[in-house]
Write a structure and sequence with these properties.
mainly alpha; two-stranded antiparallel sheet; 2 strands
């Protein structure tokens, strides 16, 4: 069963979501590369947590709307390769070529292959038990590959792509999204802790847990494409490696 999209007085198109994801990713990378006021750096880092879940959601939307799955994967593969050195530089890794940390496009490519496999299992095995067992095994393999390949967000990142796929395939999609987002962002992706004073007490939680807030714009999505053109599509793909190169150049000039 495919999830239907409700209309809200305030709604966002695919164009709006993609623009928001790119801006929040840019904010996160600015915080990682340029030395700014500490409060501003923290604020940009908080905003940056919204980017990955929105991109993961859009990757799944693209999967359901693409005219050619092979071309979709090919574009991701090409730009994953193009983005690897800029990504290694912007992340401050030990070498421009580093096999121990791969950019997020590899995460999305693995996720796409997993959800394609899930569709194939549904088509070839009518028995519910075989579907469940085969799907669990495939997700487990995808999760493991994400960890072993050391892609950005690792296995949990692949699992988040699967979460948005399942939310499209089954009823109560928003509950599936919420559960998956809490599991992935709140528990599996533990990173820097954020401490918030609350009276005499202090509440601490993983920074990545802020990514759960990306459900607000995702749930405002109205299912419409919005502005679209070939130039815009190319810009979206090129934005990832190019904005990192620009930030790297700025760092070289300023510092």
């Amino acid at each position: 069963m495919t999830q239907t999209t409700r209309r809200f007085p305030l709604s966002l198109t695919s164009f709006d979501l993609r623009l928001l994801a790119m801006l929040t990713m840019l904010a996160d990378h600015v915080a990682k590369t340029l030395v700014l006021d500490s409060n501003l750096t923290a604020a940009l880092g908080y905003l940056g947590r919204l980017a990955f879940p929105i991109f993961a959601f859009q990757i799944v939307e693209g999967y359901f709307h693409t005219h050619s799955f092979k071309q979709y994967c090919k574009r991701l593969l090409v730009f994953a390769l193009l983005s690897e050195i800029p990504y290694n530089l912007i992340m401050g890794l030990s070498s421009p070529i580093n096999p121990f940390h791969q950019n997020v496009l590899w995460t999305f490519l693995i996720g796409l292959l997993v959800i394609r496999g899930l569709d194939r299992i549904r088509e070839r095995f009518p028995q519910p038990l075989l579907q469940v067992l085969g799907s669990l095994a495939l997700v487990f393999v995808g999760y493991g590959i994400g960890n072993l390949a050391m892609v950005d967000y690792s296995g949990p990142g692949v699992l988040l792509v699967v979460t948005f796929y399942l939310a499209k395939r089954f009823a109560h999609g928003r509950l599936i999204q919420l559960a998956g987002m809490v599991l992935v962002n709140g528990f599996l992706l533990q990173n820097f802790l954020v401490s918030i004073p609350l009276g005499s007490q202090t509440i601490s939680f993983s920074l990545q847990a802020l990514g759960i807030l990306s459900l607000i714009p995702i749930w405002l999505y109205n299912g419409q494409r919005g502005y679209s053109s070939k130039a815009w599509s190319r810009f979206c793909y090129w934005f990832y490696p190019v904005h990192m190169l620009v930030l790297i150049a700025l760092c070289a000039i300023l510092y």
